[in-house]
């Protein structure tokens, strides 16, 4: 049984009060996802400023916000890790690994012992590799350590489809899988709208699917070039998955988890509830899609081995 019996009694900790951490706190506050949010950052001044500012917004919410010590954060029901360096314009997510590995180790050490029923959510990049590290270092079962993976990329993909077909993004059943980065794979072959294969729609005839997928994969770079960081999309994503956890929704969303089929920590659709990941659901994929995922799994596996040895 999970420690979360009802949303009203649950607590979320957010480690890292920068652009992403504060946006996540704001989104979760506005949706009253949990009853209390704790925020921790080793930059105490920024942390205090963010908490005071968020407290001014809490009057429209039933959530309380305060600063939490690392040990208190380690006892939360949902622990979200955003602490880490962000990409500079043009930099890839993979290039952050060395800096963010060190930060992740110190964050996990500072929180230990972590509550045995907590769900640990990795947001800092490169998210698949950091999820793999956290699975090894946190002491929690694999089903309780997840990364936001390609949830955000899948949202971006659905919005791109929405613009072409004039249907709500919520009615597009299609996923970006594998890497939350340059090696991500769009699963066109089994994506559907209203039960009809996406690639059968007239609007997709003659469309360069690789180019459309590339634009989705480049969206983070476009935002970073324009405003220095992405924050609102990932904040919505984390509030969504936190609600899946607190309400035991078992919704199927693509997240970073250990995937036996590819023997690596990759992002695939999973059902998520109060106990964490209940099952991984592999979409139907064609040979080309599988080959691309296997190629990316090889790189992720090697990076995980390097950074957890
Ligand atoms: N998975 C996803 O879809 C997304 C991931 N990200 C990633 O999230 C991370 C954070 O991005 P931003 O918030 O824009 O960066 P930021 O620089 O605004 O904030 C990072 C915060 O982490 C804090 N921090 C660093 N080490 C710490 C430690 N040991 N303990 C506590 N706090 C610590 C810093 O003081 C800073 O306030 C980056 O790695 C970025 O690439 C960003 C957007 C989307
Ligand atoms: C920065 C990042 O990982 C994103 O917005 O997708």
Describe the structure.
There is one protein chain. The protein folds into 2 domains: 11-149, NAD(P)-binding Rossmann-like Domain (Rossmann fold), CATH 3.40.50.720; 151-229 and 249-308, L-2-Hydroxyisocaproate Dehydrogenase, Chain A, domain 2. It is 41% helix and 19% strand. It has helices at residues 19-30, 44-57, 70-73, 97-111, 127-137, 151-165, 209-217, 219-227, 232-246, 287-308, and strands spanning 11-15, 36-40, 64-67, 78-81, 119-122, 145-147, 172-173, 176-177, 185-186, 192-193, 196-197, 251-259, 264-273, 276-280. The radius of gyration is 19 Å and the shape is globular. Pyruvic acid binds next to loops. Residues 150-303 form the Lactate/malate dehydrogenase C-terminal domain. It holds the Pfam family Ldh_1_C. Belongs to the LDH/MDH superfamily. The chain crosses the membrane at residues 12-34.
């Amino acid at each position: 049984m999970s420690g979360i019996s009802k949303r009203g009694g649950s607590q979320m900790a957010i480690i890292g009060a920068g652009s992403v951490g504060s946006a996540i706190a704001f989104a979760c506050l506005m949706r009253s996802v949990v009853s209390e949010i704790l925020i921790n950052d080793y930059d105490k001044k920024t942390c205090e400023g963010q908490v005071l500012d968020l407290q001014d917004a809490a009057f429209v919410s039933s959530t309380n916000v305060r600063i939490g010590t690392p040990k208190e954060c380690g006892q939360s029901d949902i622990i979200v890790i955003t602490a880490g360096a962000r990409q500079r314009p043009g930099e890839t997510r993979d290039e952050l690994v060395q800096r963010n590995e060190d930060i992740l180790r110190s964050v996990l050490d500072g929180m230990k012992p972590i509550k045995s029923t907590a769900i640990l959510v990795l947001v800092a990049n490169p998210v698949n590799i950091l999820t793999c590290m956290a699975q090894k270092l946190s002491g929690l079962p694999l089903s309780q350590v997840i990364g936001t993976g390609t949830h955000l990329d899948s949202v971006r993909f659905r919005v791109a489809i929405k613009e072409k077909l004039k249907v709500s993004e919520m009615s597009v059943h299609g996923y970006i899988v594998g890497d939350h980065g340059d090696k991500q794979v769009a699963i066109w072959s089994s994506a559907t709208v209203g039960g009809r294969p996406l690639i059968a729609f007239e609007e997709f005839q003659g469309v360069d699917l690789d180019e459309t997928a590339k634009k989705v994969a480049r969206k983070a770079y476009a935002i970073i070039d324009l405003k220095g960081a992405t924050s609102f999309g990932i904040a919505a994503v984390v509030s969504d998955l936190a609600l899946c956890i607190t309400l035991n929704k078992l919704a199927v969303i693509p997240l970073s988890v250990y995937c036996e089929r590819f023997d690596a920590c990759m992002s695939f659709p999973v059902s998520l509830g109060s106990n964490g990941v209940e099952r991984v659901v592999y979409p139907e994929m064609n040979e080309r899609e599988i080959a691309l995922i296997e190629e990316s799994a090889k790189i992720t596996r090697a990076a995980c081995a390097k950074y957890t040895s």
